[in-house]
Design brief:
Layout: H1 3-15, H2 36-41, H3 54-59, E1 68-73, H4 79-89, H5 93-108, E2 118-121, H6 126-132, H7 136-147, E3 151-152, E4 157-159, H8 171-177, E5 182-184, E6 194-202, H9 206-215, E7 222-230
Parallel strand pairs: 1-7, 2-3, 2-6, 6-7
Antiparallel strand pairs: 4-5
Helix pairs in contact: 4-5, 5-7
Length: 232
């Protein structure tokens, strides 16, 4: 960036400042998407240090997993809800990428995630993808990949059935709603791989369970999970 461009950039930033997507404060030059104060003080779960964390226990007996991780706790009316709403509905994919970078930095130093081969985001149905413009789980996966030695694979796991929103469904209804929704293409490409399956928000875990059960049909595949937020 030359000197004229730099001055122009600062002038535009003065008139139209970039805002922290968690608290709404103006960002300074070195900050990206989330201000430094929020970056340090978000409600982190530290699940990468807790193999028997609450989400892992929630999935015990339902699916065979190597490790389970969530970056943040989701609290209604809090900063995480603000971010997730903007990320999902306000066309701000950069939020997912930044949160993925933060999560990836944590997982890069966690023993259970050292041998991840492939990161697979939970896929959207093409109809939903067209409406939203991007897959929020894929944006999170991209950020993770920047900090981890693993590639993102968006072609192996696909959604073949459009489903209603899960928001107001019971745990059983969510499970029933996700039956036969996903399938795997070219399973031989994932044989013997350690896959990190990622989503945006975990509540009951039904979506990740449905995806994971399909992936675990592949011989020798090891499965771990990661998500941005956990809503109890």
């Amino acid at each position: 960036m030359n000197q004229v461009s730099r001055y122009l950039h600062h002038f535009v930033a003065l008139i139209f400042p970039e805002l922290c997507q968690a608290c709404g404060a103006s960002l300074i030059a070195a900050e990206k998407v989330i201000c430094i104060n929020c970056t340090y003080n978000l409600p982190y779960t530290n699940f990468h240090q807790q193999p028997d964390n609450v989400v892992a226990r929630q999935l015990w007996g339902r699916i065979n997993l190597q490790a389970v991780y969530v970056l943040l706790y989701f609290v209604k009316g809090g900063k995480v809800q603000n971010m997730m709403h903007r990320f999902k509905y306000n066309n701000m994919p950069q939020i997912g990428n930044r949160l993925g970078q933060i999560a990836g930095a944590q997982l890069a130093g966690a023993a259970a995630y050292q041998n991840i081969d492939v990161i697979i985001p939970v896929p959207l149905h093409p109809k939903k993808l067209k409406q939203r413009g991007y897959n929020q789980s894929e944006r999170f996966a991209d950020g993770l990949s920047e900090k981890m030695t693993a590639r993102v694979d968006t072609g192996s796991l696909i959604r073949v059935k459009h489903t209603d929103t899960q928001t107001k469904k019971s745990r059983f209804s969510r499970y029933e709603n996700m039956k036969e929704v996903f399938t795997v293409l070219h399973p031989e490409r994932l044989t013997g791989k350690h896959v990190l399956l990622v989503d945006d928000i975990i509540t009951t875990g039904s979506t990740l369970e449905a995806c994971g059960l399909e992936l675990l049909k592949i011989p020798g595949l090891t499965l771990s999970l990661a998500a941005i937020a956990y809503a109890e």
